[in-house]
Write a structure and sequence with these properties.
The complex is a heterodimer. By secondary structure, chain A is an alpha/beta fold. Chain A contains five helices and 13 strands. Chain B has one domain (5-124, 133-218): Glutaconate Coenzyme A-transferase. Classes of the chains: A alpha/beta, B alpha/beta. Chain A: GO terms for molecular function: CoA-transferase activity.
């Protein structure tokens, strides 16, 4: 059985991002998506700490302490880019101006609930950052994550066990095994499966019913 | 003649009282008023409530202020990050109160405070455990939670340029929380890398108008940033 690598997952998401979208990429695999958007396709990256038109990492000697991304790594600004304060930045998010946000997640439920900030109800000091604002505010929320946990438990579930980040927010999930849409009233609808894996095998690794349009 | 420029960090921070709510600008190290935070350690105010995106790193700055037992409560979005050891220790020992606020809600609560809006409704956090205890109301068929404005007694901000009227510019993504904090506090103190003559910051380029700024102190970040 084959499965996508992290790079292949990032590249697969990048295929679906058209020119002209304003896109916020979360930390981890989502950040890697930027590397697979061809330079000639103008996608404007938003970073919630106050950047539109974010570019790749600078050469070390060109880094400045004032130009970092939401993961606090040095970045660059593309021509046409801009800076703004946090209230404007989250106004862009909450106000529905960001076309797409891609986040990682611990779990996604079949109604689109997402859990990606706290690993336990008992964790009283989890770091939420901008995750709730992005999940509630972006026009589209896609998740990129492994299909199961390291010990094989499904991450696509009927109901999230972890504390929610947002309710009914996710539209699409890209995993190392499949591309799955979350359709209101239906649940998980499989769009693509990695070569060599059957729907039955995919279902066995999924914690909720998978539907197909076929 | 109006002159908000003071000659020392001690002068810039004089009068900050015990029990104050202190808004500290910055996202990570970018736009963080490091010298004012160090100055606050010297200044001595205690029993503070600190509002900042992060809960300090290493054993310097905010982390040091917390380690000295001077912070009663921290209001932030992302307490745990690389090097947040002091926060972890104090929080686990029950020596620090914590209020977790989503990052955009944190910014908007301060913007609202500065703009005279006592509370607002937001979809962020609705249906999550951060909605517990908050009024929920539906708008356009969607649940929203009520969040209160978050005013400060003091704001400490890092500017790139300042003039004697307190007009400020910021550098790149160092702007982050600084403008909303500047407008949300009774006493706003800016450390500025460059002091400009009045009129030399182009009016179109002022990020924070001087009306929001009480005191300015010149702090050069040093080479190669001159």
């Amino acid at each position: 059985m084959s499965s996508f690598t992290r790079q292949q997952m990032a590249a697969r998401v990048a295929q679906d991002i058209p020119e002209g979208w304003f896109v916020n990429l979360g930390i981890g695999i989502p950040t890697m998506i930027a590397d697979y958007v061809p330079m000639e396709r103008e996608v404007i990256l938003h970073s919630e700490n106050g950047i539109l038109g974010m570019g790749p990492a600078p050469a070390p000697e060109q880094a400045t302490p004032w130009l970092i991304n939401a993961g606090k790594q040095p970045v660059t600004l593309r021509p046409g880019g801009s800076f703004f304060h946090h209230a404007d930045s989250f106004g862009m998010i909450r106000g529905g101006h960001i076309d797409l946000c891609v986040l990682g997640a611990f779990e996604v439920a079949e109604n689109g609930d997402i859990a990606n900030w706290a690993t336990s109800e008992n964790d009283s000091a989890p770091a939420v950052g901008g995750a709730m604002d992005l999940a509630a505010g972006a026009k589209r929320l896609w998740v990129v994550m492994d299909h199961t946990t390291k010990d094989g438990r499904p991450k696509l579930v009927e109901t999230c066990g972890y504390p929610l980040t947002a309710h009914c927010a996710v539209q699409r999930i890209y995993t190392n095994l499949a591309v799955i849409d979350v359709v209101r009233g239906r649940g998980f609808v499989v769009r693509e499966i990695v070569p060599g894996l059957s729907l039955t095998e995919l279902q066995a690794k999924t914690g909720a019913t998978l539907h197909t349009d076929a | 003649m109006i002159n908000k420029i003071v000659q020392s960090i001690a002068e810039a921070l004089s009068g900050i009282k015990d029990g104050s709510t202190v808004l500290m600008g910055g996202f990570g190290a970018a736009g963080q008023p490091d010298d004012l935070i160090e100055g606050l350690i010297e200044q001595g105010a205690k029993d503070l409530t600190v509002v900042a995106n992060n809960a300090g790193a290493g054993r310097v700055g905010l982390a040091k202020l917390m380690e000295m037992g001077r912070v009663r409560k921290i209001i932030c979005s992302f307490p745990r990050s690389a090097g947040s050891t002091v926060f972890e220790e104090l929080y686990r020992a029950g020596k620090l109160e914590l209020e977790i606020v989503p990052q955009g809600t944190l910014a908007e609560r301060m913007r609202a405070a500065g703009a005279g809006i006592p509370a607002f409704y937001t979809p962020t956090g609705a249906g999550t455990k951060l909605a517990q205890g908050k009024e929920t109301r539906e708008f356009n068929g969607r649940p929203h939670i009520m969040e209160l404005s978050l005013p400060g007694d003091v704001a400490l901000v890092e500017a790139w340029e300042a003039d004697r009227w307190g007009n400020l510019t910021y550098r790149q993504s160092g702007r982050n929380f600084n403008p909303v904090m500047a407008m949300a506090a009774k006493l706003t103190v800016a450390q500025a890398h460059h002091i400009r003559e009045l009129g030399d910051i182009a009016p179109d380029n002022v990020h924070t108008p001087g009306i929001f700024v009480s005191r300015v102190v010149h702090v050069v970040r040093g080479a190669p940033w001159n």
